[in-house]
Each structure stands twice: as C-alpha cells, then as structure tokens.
Design goal:
The chain has six helices and six strands, in the order βαββαβαβαααβ. By secondary structure, it is α/β, with parallel strands linked by helices. It has a single domain (about 5-165), classed as Rossmann fold. It has a six-stranded mixed sheet, sandwiched between helices. Helix 3 links the parallel strand 4 and strand 5. Helix 1 (about 15-30) packs across helix 4 and helix 4 (about 110-125) runs antiparallel to helix 6. The protein is globular and about 50 Å long. The two termini are about 30 Å apart.
Length: about 190
C-alpha cells in the first residue's frame, strides 16, 4: 500500500505566505499522492517526516535551528531555500554555520515555487514506488518539471489564508482522515 509523503516545513513567520503557496503547489502536482505536512514549531514531527524543507528569509527564528538539528540527526533528506533578502547579523551567522547545506536561492515566490516543485518532483521520481506513483504519473511529472521555467512571477500575498497549523493534502479518491476538513478548493 502506498505511503503518504510526510513533509516537514521549517520556516519563520515571515515566510508564512511562502508556506501556503508551497502547499498549493503540492496539490497541483500531476500525481495521485497524499501529503501530510507538519511545520514549525512541531519539533517532535521532524523525526517522523520523509522530507525536511528549510525556508530561510532574513533572520533566524526559534525553533528553526533545533528543527534543522533534528533533521540532520535523524538523517532526513533536506531541501534548503534562502531568499535573496538582506539578512540580519544572526541570519548571516546561521547561513554561514550551515554552509554545508545545498542552499537554493530565490528572489520571489515564483522562483521558490519552481525550485521546490522541481526538487519535490525529483524526490517523487526517485521514490515513486514507495508513494504509489505510477509510470504514467512519472511521465506526467517529468513533463511538469520540464515546463516549470514557463511559470510566471507569483506576487507575495498580503497575508496567509490557508492551513495555519499544517495540513494533509489527499490525492483524489483517498479517504479523509478523522477530523479532516476542507480549507479551500481550486
């Protein structure tokens, strides 16, 4: 039976709109995969995730450093993104202290979305059997990833409106877990 992908998103409050946009990007992927998304400050969920996502803006926020520590300690695959914004002195130290990460820079939400979807798509292509990705879906996903450079600029929303505490994205036809509720539809 396919496993839902468990994603942990570690980011400070300044990147709340980016978190929401990435959740929507997952829902747009051309695959029939369920996602369980946990986020800062749920440090205990880091050990349970399959993929750890670190988004960094201009400053370090607690407990992002601790979450990264646990992701490394539990040997999770880490996707690390940092904005092109000027950093605070503490932010500069954090980036330098973690220079061994394969940071992907982004100037706007469109660039972040493209990089994230490309990385998550490659993750699914490598681990497709575990998550029940079919051969047809792999072909669709490959084409989707190749078309990412055509994605237009996505302006930063004024405020986040989605799943503030994380969420579950279900593939079409999947049963909802107990207590699930729809927070928005396309």
């Amino acid at each position: 039976m396919p496993t839902q992908v468990r994603l942990f998103v570690s980011a400070g409050p300044e990147l709340e709109p980016a978190r929401e946009m990435l959740g929507r990007a997952l829902a747009d992927l051309p695959v029939n995969v369920g996602w369980v998304i946990k986020r800062t400050p749920d440090v205990d969920s880091v050990a349970e995730c399959h993929l750890f996502l670190l988004m960094f803006g201009s400053d370090i926020w607690a407990p992002v450093g601790l979450e990264l520590f646990w992701a490394r300690r539990t040997e999770k695959p880490i996707l690390a993104y940092r904005s092109a914004r000027a950093r605070t002195p503490a932010g500069q130290v954090f980036v330098q202290a973690n220079s061994d990460l394969e940071w992907t820079g982004f100037a706007d939400l469109g660039a972040l979305r493209r990089a994230f979807v490309r990385d998550v798509g490659r993750f699914l292509l490598r681990h497709g059997e575990r998550y029940g990705v079919t051969l047809t879906e792999m072909q669709s996903l490959t084409g989707y990833i190749q078309g990412l450079d055509q994605t237009p600029h996505v302006p930063l929303p004024a405020k986040a409106t989605g799943a503030a505490g994380g969420g579950v994205i279900l593939a079409p036809g999947k049963d909802e877990p107990p207590g699930a509720r729809v927070i928005g539809e396309a």
